[in-house]
Design a protein that fits this description.
- This protein is about 45% helix and about 15% strand.
- The chain is an alpha/beta fold.
- It folds into two domains: about 35-270, Type I PLP-dependent aspartate aminotransferase-like (Major domain) (Aspartate Aminotransferase, domain 2, 3-Layer(aba) Sandwich); about 275-399, Alpha-Beta Complex (Aspartate Aminotransferase, domain 1), CATH 3.90.1150.10.
- Strands 2-10-9-8-5-3-4 form a seven-stranded mixed β-sheet, sandwiched between helices. Strands 11-14-13 form a three-stranded antiparallel β-sheet, covered by helices on one side. A two-stranded parallel ribbon has the order 1-12.
- It binds pyridoxal-5'-phosphate (PLP).
- Pyridoxal-5'-phosphate binds near residues 74 and 150.
């Protein structure tokens, strides 16, 4: 055992975060993080929790009363959704077209669910016909899907179709919007979702640690009439809601500083406007997309289900993706990542979320990426990429 512990000051490297999250944090959010803390039931903090709930309703496009932020990252929100809504023995339908769909299945299984999957390829969204087939065959009580699948860069389309299939079978629908809420159009109420959750560190320009979630009245009725108690004490909706209700009482200590950060992030989203927020992500990521395409490294997904917040860029022939990723980080301070599972070595994953979704980042990324690929011997047209991105950004500035 050591007698003492001495290390120097920690100085983080200067990074531009363009991976699948976390994303860059807005300076106003950094500043909120350093505000002095209060007690977790201080009137001022309770007011702040109310502001957060109102901001989250705006963000989710919902009137759901039961809207709050889970203390934990996106996976804790995923676990909150499934562990509360699923009763042991119930059949749960989950996607098979990506890494986070798989995680959903594992979480639902641990909640006691019997897991069945919708057949779909990695790199494609769920087809409503395949979902309808799976409903006919398995009659699931709960169906979960991923709006923005971060492992493949695929956006789930036709969501109203998916929820109406579930309604016809009296089932409940859970949507994962961890990598999309705030960055890609989403309508909780209009699209008839029962539970939707997200995360703070992807499209919300905030640090990881608190995760938005919203429950419909119908979902809460199911939860409050459960026979078996929820298996997690910490994530039990009924307990957590006591803290977030109009008469808050102690359940667990709120993550106060991160909640300050989330409030500031929601405040900025309110100032910019949610539609403008969606539009900015689409246009700025669109400048990235057109740049890589002009360079001759196309996206690995079709335009119809392109996810602006996470771009799956094909790895050109003859190039080692890990070398490119490493050089972008060490020579340019830009973080991107590679593909998972079957897509390892096939795609780069380039995030464009929250405060990272800025013209300067995209222009810098395209220049650095083109330069590194060229230097690694890939057949890329660097100048065409830069020109195409500059053109798209110019249009965005003028719009
Ligand atoms: C990042 C992510 C998660 C998990 O979130 P954590 O904050 O890492 O726990 C879940 N779903 C999707 C789609 C994600 O991108």
């Amino acid at each position: 055992m050591e007698d003492s512990f001495t290390v120097g000051e920690y100085v983080p490297p200067d990074r531009t975060l363009m991976g699948p999250g976390p994303s860059d944090i807005h300076p106003r959010v950094y500043s909120a993080l350093s505000d002095t803390i209060t007690g977790y039931l201080d009137d001022s903090y309770v007011d702040l929790m109310n502001d957060v709930q109102e901001g989250l309703r705006y963000l989710f496009r919902t009137d759901n009363e039961y809207t709050f932020a889970v203390s934990g990252t996106g996976s804790a929100a995923m676990e909150t959704a499934f562990t509360n809504l699923v009763e042991p023995g119930e059949t749960v339908l989950v996607p098979s077209n990506g890494y986070f769909g798989k995680r959903m299945g594992e979480v639902a299984r641990r909640a006691g669910g019997e897991i069945v999957t919708v057949d779909a390829e990695w790199g494609e969204p769920l087809d409503p016909r395949a979902v309808a087939d799976a409903f006919e065959r398995h009659q699931p009580a709960v169906f979960g899907f991923i709006h923005g699948e971060t492992s493949t860069g695929v956006k789930q389309t036709e969501i109203p179709e998916l929820t109406s299939i579930a309604r016809e079978h009296d089932a409940y629908v859970i949507a994962d919007t961890v990598a999309s809420l705030g960055g890609v159009e989403f309508h909780t109420d209009e699209w008839n979702l029962d539970v939707v959750y997200s995360g703070s560190q992807k499209c919300l320009s905030a640090p990881p640690g608190v995760s938005p979630i919203t429950f419909s009245d119908r979902a809460v009725e199911k939860i409050t009439s459960r026979e078996a108690p929820v298996r997690s004490w910490y994530l039990d909706f009924t307990g957590v809601w006591e803290y977030w209700s109009d008469e808050p009482s102690y359940h667990h200590t709120g993550p106060i500083s991160i909640m300050y950060a989330l409030r500031e992030s929601l405040r900025m989203i309110g100032e910019e406007g949610i539609e403008q927020q969606w539009n900015r992500h689409e246009k700025v990521a669109g400048a990235l997309k057109t740049g890589v395409e002009a360079m001759d490294v196309p996206l690995a997904v079709e335009d119809d289900y392109w996810l602006p917040t996470l771009n799956a860029v094909s790895v050109p022939d003859g190039v080692d993706d890990t070398v490119v990723i490493d050089r972008l980080l060490t020579e340019h301070g830009i973080e991107i990542v590679g593909g998972l599972g079957a897509l390892s070595g096939e795609i780069f994953r380039v995030g464009c979320m929250g405060y990272s979704a800025r013209p300067a980042n995209v222009a810098n990324f395209i220049a650095a990426f083109g330069d590194v690929l060229d230097d690694e011997g890939a057949a890329v047209d660097v100048a065409a990429g830069a020109a195409s991105t500059a053109g798209a950004l110019g249009e965005y500035y003028r719009s």
